[in-house]
What we know:
By secondary structure, the protein is mainly alpha-helical. Helices cover 54% and strands 0% of the residues.
Amino acid sequence: MPVYTLPELPYDYAALAPVISPEIIELHHDKHHAAYVKGANDTLEQLAEARDKESWGAVNGLEKNLWPSISPATSCTASTGRT
């Protein structure tokens, strides 16, 4: 089973200052990105457990959440790239 890892930053937190503060880089890398990695790994583990137990109710729940979250366009238009 693939496991995701949080990559190390190829630069110091302060390397992008003053455009992006070290605190923002640290927050996004160490908190946000780390949470996404953990969430992906937790999901993979839960799917593996469901497979092992042949318990597909949880997996079916994922599909149930999918359909209401997508819909055909009603009021948006495609971007033309023009201003």
